[in-house]
Amino acid sequence: MKCTLSVLLTLLSISSISALNLAKSAECGVRGGRIVGGSPAERGEHPSIVSLKVGTKHFCGGTLISEEWVLTAAHCVDDSTARLMSVAVREHNVFGPELPSALIVKPSKIIRHGDFSSTTFENDIALIKLSQPIRLEGDEFAGVACLPDDDSETFTGQDAIASGWGRLQENGGSPAILHQVTLPVMSNQECSTLLGGYFNIGRGQICAGFRQGGKDACQGDSGGPLYIRKAGKDYLVGITSIGIGCARPRLPGVWTRTSHYLSWIVQAINTH
């Protein structure tokens, strides 16, 4: 569910960024073998993406950043959700069986940012600790994303990749297969001008999309990744957060900027 204001609740060619790898047993950002206006991804193309489910129903995305931690949006999860949900790792087809099958893991803890606002969607970030670590060695369909190691890059004008199982058009149907779309990152200043009538864009957010619309994340993509590819690695630079509808002209999507929250992420993991 990409969160959209009033109607609907709602990735970077890195020039000099270094990787923050939180995994102990695997290299981060390595790929294995709709999103509105996007196309199907190959299985293993984004091995760090996970599906959050209640029963067998997908409701949000997330990204594996270590063997036992997933990053997602705060608006996707809370303490009550933890009792009902599961995390599907190496998922590709959310509607049918596949081999090897997805790994289904229950969460042991959910940590939402203490200053998350369900009104403004500021600090829309949460961590999910898995009840057991994922074995990643030799698994071409499961992996961890790299995180940027500092908050110095804005990524403005660079191409990013959003990925998820969200609706293929506003109020439309959802795909069985993981989809992806490439979007240009927009400056926060331009984004604020376009979205100023709806909400403020802060330093902890990153915007992407085309002024003419046509491509975007949508409902069901919430919590999922916005990646930038550098030297063959996926860097997680955004978490799908909010937007006005899906792929409308002059209304870019908004993601939580992961680099702004590096200290919070590391502290939360070290504390728990």
TrEMBL record:
InterPro entries in the record: Peptidase_S1_PA (IPR009003), Peptidase_S1_PA_chymotrypsin (IPR043504), Peptidase_S1A (IPR001314), Trypsin_dom (IPR001254), TRYPSIN_HIS (IPR018114), TRYPSIN_SER (IPR033116)
The keyword Disulfide bond is assigned to this record: yes
Pfam families the record matches: Trypsin (PF00089)
A GO BP entry: proteolysis
Ranges in coiled-coil conformation: none
Record keywords: Disulfide bond, Hydrolase, Protease, Serine protease
GO function terms (MF aspect): serine-type endopeptidase activity
Protein name: Uncharacterized protein
Gene source species: Cyprideis torosa
